[in-house]
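Here is one such protein, fold included:

. . .
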Amino acid sequence: MKKLLFLLLLFPALLFGQPNVPLDWFHLDPVEDKFRGLNTGGAYDLLGERDAQIVIVAILDSGIDIDHEDLRENIWTNPGEIANSGRDDDGNGYKDDIHGWNFIGGPDGDVINDNLEITRLYRKFRDEYSHLNPLELNRRDRLKYAEYLTYKRAYQEGRENALENYERMKEFRDRLVFVIDKAMMALEDKPLSEENLMQIDADGNMDLTFGINVLLSLLEDYDPEDFDQFRAEIIGSLDGGVDHYESSYKYHYNVDYDPRHLVNDNYEDPNERYYGNSNVGGAFSQHGTHIAGIIGAVRNNGTGMDGVAKHVRIMPVRTVPDGDERDKDVANAIRYAVDNGAKIINMSFGKGYSWNKQIVDEAVRYAEKNDVLLVHAAGNSGQNNDLNENYPNPNYERRRLFSPRQARNWIEVGALNYNNPPEKVASFSNYGKETVDVFAPGNFIYSTVPGNEYEDLQGTSMAAPMVSGLAAILRSYFPELSAREVKDIILQSAIKENVEVYLPGTRELIPFSDLSQTGGYINAYEAVKLAIKKTE
């Protein structure tokens, strides 16, 4: 029962999405509206009738529904490519890349599910070292053998946890549906309401008592008119949780599963660039489509929701499967975006291990050389990134002579909650006084999803595109600003509050200023005001 109660507490958002806050809370004014949004409307009022130019924002993600009613007008089109010609018309190495590129697909289809990086590393080192006797190895190989054992322990622990979570979630799903049905039967023909539930005499029946309490808890945030629909939504959400944990066990932590053959590249060659296909959407594109809406859903069209940036074109670069992204793909995706005109690259992904950090570092340097801003989500583990590895990151593994240790064109973003202090920071958000730059709205964010639909999702994945959208406003209206200058303006204009908040994942109170370098959260109005001051 304790495990089931824990899961019930863990999945309220999974069950019933948006709380009682405005769907556009992330656009609102912290002063007038009392929500720590960007004050996007105030920013555009400041900009008035200023001239603006189109800015291309690349979204390195799982794919984007480019035909979405609220996105298609703002999807990037490659001016040098002829649709369905079957040729590489612009000579950039990518055939028929009309709206972007897919680095996780090939001639035989696309990778949907993939391993976590720890699984791939364990498989590689297992094949090289598991059959060796460590006592017979030289010093270098003994160190590698020790590394293999570290990966082995981490993989085995992850796989055991994945199986346990999968079985626990299945149990939770079946149990919850059973007790809800029991409570509903006890209502007989009475409407589902708090008053009627409280009148049920459970007579010591633990299942019935549990079912009544579950429904009472859910009714705090949800007022169903139709019980069958209500039940179907609960089951659908719970099935989604089961599928998530099943995927973790079957794919993420399964050393015998490797789908890379679909891409048809030479994976051992990190410098190989020209592989993939032109399918920028696909079955796993909810995440990327949601991010695209935050940045660039068409504003003021009376449809769905408004993105942050007005004069923007979204470039889909498919890089992230259901599993960990691969460093080779990330590096190539960055280079593709830079070479095809992106001025901002949004990267809402991350992992705890890296296969080849150097190849990603070289791509980051390439972006900086070409004045492209990189915006990255800090992660959703509620961890201190100052103390834990999180990839990709701006810290160069190998420092060049007279060159900086870190990329200067990089912004690392944590997630802000819609609540007031002490619940001001999203409980899942990673943080770090040295490694996270700033916070942005990231909890219960309403945006586009495939099929002309809209949903609220949460994560630092949603906070990063808030920053990318703000950067797009600045680069659109103030094109003379460099990527570094845009970064400085966003960070310098961040709103700071002398308040205590819960340390993510705990009930420990700490100063908000201790969670990031700026100690603040972004604000479009303040950023535009500062940009005007710096450019006039």
